[in-house]
Design a protein that fits this description.
With about 325 residues, this protein is an alpha/beta fold. The chain has helices spanning about 35, 45-65, 85-100, 110-120, 160-170, 180-185, 210-225, 235-260, 275-285, 305-315, and strands spanning about 1-5, 10-20, 25-30, 75-80, 105-110, 130-135, 140-145, 150-155, 265-270, 290-295.
């Protein structure tokens, strides 16, 4: 089964072609990062307009690289939630039009489910059930993946996501967008002990996250140093922030594994590329005798492969839609 998949939830225009889910025949990504770097973050209106300009070219290039003719496409998929609503509508409407023109099913795919599916592409042996962490610019969640389309939310952020905190702290430090990568690189040269960072203690669900306090503390540290005429050590501050993010995520993931009894752990999303987080997840998993799957860096960010892969399993579960399918800026990973 050949699936053409479109991903336009934020500032990457991506298209991929999968064969029976996990075999990716082509994956093309057009990134707008350089353009949004001028503004220190993603400008939704600009992102939507660029998707409109590039989406046909990206889809055609994916088909060309895959060696697939339009008549050989068996279904068309697209991210329909969550994300920037204007950007989502561009991709989903393009995909629905393609499906209608070709007379094939349209498969709506949840963006976070797609991030999890990036691991299916990277690791052919991986199958549910397992515990998944998805950490990105807009999301930090823990989910119990009982099956490919049966997913239960265990914990989520109550305010800022880890990736959002990285980006805003990086911007205050004068680092380029996207900030997570720049912070990761600086952290390799820094001492996290130089700038102690707070940890949020939440009542209610102990698996929930909060990164607004960390973001505020780091930004205040930068502003206070500037007001006093002092020089902030960017390497040390980046190391402290990365350490704080890891210390917030890793223990909660281990607690979720204990509660669910899962021995297989999976990480996904842009923040899963952070080296401090990856190292600490790997260390704790080894200590507990668990199996940890970390996607290659190329599959941590938004891409078409993850949507093309998850689309196959959504199709198998009968999750197709018609032209009336809408897009949603926010939507739980549990929704089908």
């Amino acid at each position: 089964m050949n699936i053409l998949a479109i991903e336009t939830s934020c500032d990457e225009t991506a298209a991929a072609v999968s064969q029976d889910g996990r075999k990716i025949l082509a994956d093309v990504v057009y990134s707008q990062a350089d353009m949004h770097a001028l503004y220190g973050g993603v400008v939704p209106e600009i992102a939507s307009r660029k998707h409109i300009e590039k989406i046909s070219l990206v889809a055609d290039e994916a088909l060309r690289r895959a060696g697939i003719q339009r008549g050989q496409i068996d279904a068309v998929a697209a991210t329909y939630a969550p994300g920037l609503i204007g950007a989502l509508l561009v991709g989903a409407n393009f995909a629905k039009a393609c499906a209608q023109a070709l007379g094939v099913p349209f498969i709506p795919v949840h963006h976070i489910r797609g991030h999890i599916a990036a691991n299916y592409v990277a690791f052919p042996q991986l199958e549910p059930p397992f515990l998944a962490l998805v950490a990105s610019g807009g999301h930090t969640i823990l989910a119990d993946v009982a099956d490919y389309t049966q997913i239960k939310l265990l914990g989520t952020t109550r305010d800022d996501a880890a990736g959002e905190a990285f980006d805003k702290i990086a911007r205050t430090l004068g680092l380029p967008y996207p900030g997570g990568k720049a912070m990761d690189e600086l952290a390799q040269k820094g001492d996290p002990a130089c700038y102690p960072m707070p940890q949020a203690h939440l009542s209610g669900n102990p698996l929930d996250f909060s990164f607004s306090g960390l973001k505020t503390a780091a930004i205040n540290q930068i502003h206070n140093a500037k007001q006093k005429g002092e020089t902030i050590c960017r390497e040390d501050l980046a190391a402290a922030v990365c350490q704080a993010v890891a210390q917030a995520i890793v223990p909660r993931m281990m607690e979720a594994a204990k509660q669910t009894g899962r021995r297989i752990l999976v990480a996904a999303g842009g923040v899963a590329a952070n080296r401090v987080l990856r190292q600490q997840l790997q260390s704790r998993a080894e200590q507990q005798g668990m199996t940890l799957y970390l996607p290659p860096l190329s599959l941590c960010g938004d891409n078409g492969s993850m949507i093309a892969c998850q689309a196959y399993y959504e199709y198998q579960a009968g999750h197709t839609a018609g032209l009336e399918q809408n897009c949603f800026a926010t939507l739980s990973i549990e929704e089908e």
